[in-house]
């Protein structure tokens, strides 16, 4: 097993616990990793404005956000794949007929399509984020890198059958991420790594959710958290302990980086 030169970390369920806190052991492990000369980056489904404080706390300037649709390397945007406004509009109309709420996001802000939606409120609350301001036409005037569609699993299948330009990735029992077809954290990692001069064989990634499957398969070493979904564990090279049981630290020790 080749030692990685750059490690990408998911946020929710990997760096963050359910309470959206960064365990002290994970913070120290990342600090030690950087001191050992290993490059540290983030790969998340979140928008950049949703984890700015975490980047500052950890001193990270390279990240894959929106599940691969917006990639920044050392502060420079190196790849971006906005959703087509017309396609988002068609999806929004369909969601409206089914009474499913949506949130639209560019790299700086988010907007909801209604002032009060119980599912949106619950989903954002679980992320410890405020309810976005309402702007039903936000997608018409901004580059949208990801939308959130608030619907259950049964409805998700119907959307998937109807909209072939989107990929729907569930992150909550009430919601899915809407990203471009073919888009993934793995693609974003490839873009960031190439820009920085790393091969995919030199990369490692930690994750726990369905949007992490591709990156765990395609990076040099894929590590699933002990709290990960079973499908995610199956995609990884090995499973470390849960985030709340020093999973990041133990995973880094196992691959010889600490």
Number of strands: 13
* Span between termini: 15 Å
Helix content: 25-40%
Q: How many distinct domains?
A: 2
Which strand-content bin applies to the residues?
15-25%
| Helix-strand pattern | EHEHEEEHEEHHEHEEHEHEHEH
Which shape, going by the Cα principal axes? Answer: globular
CATH homologous superfamily designation of the largest domain: HAD superfamily/HAD-like
Rounded average pLDDT: 95
Record the strand order, biggest sheet. Answer: 5-4-3-2-1-11-12-13
CATH top-level class of the largest domain:
Alpha Beta
What would you note in describing this structure?
- This protein is of the alpha/beta class and 258 residues long.
- The protein folds into two domains: 6-80 and 183-254, Rossmann fold, CATH 3.40.50.1000; 85-180, Hypothetical Protein, Haloacid Dehalogenase-like Hydrolase, Chain: A, domain 2 (2-Layer Sandwich).
- 34% of the residues lie in helices and 22% in strands.
- It contains ten helices and 13 strands.
- The chain has helices spanning 24-35, 52-58, 85-97, 118-126, 138-141, 153-162, 185-196, 213-218, 230-235, 247-254, and strands at 6-9, 39-43, 63-65, 70-73, 76-80, 102-105, 110-112, 146-150, 166-172, 175-180, 203-207, 221-224, 238-239.
- The strands form two sheets. An eight-stranded mixed β-sheet has the order 5-4-3-2-1-11-12-13. A five-stranded antiparallel β-sheet has the order 7-6-8-10-9, with helices on both faces.
- Strand 11, helix 8 (213-218) and strand 12 form a beta-alpha-beta unit.
- Helix 1 packs parallel to helix 10.
- The longest helix is centred in the middle third of the chain and has 13 residues, at 85-97.
- The mean pLDDT is 95.
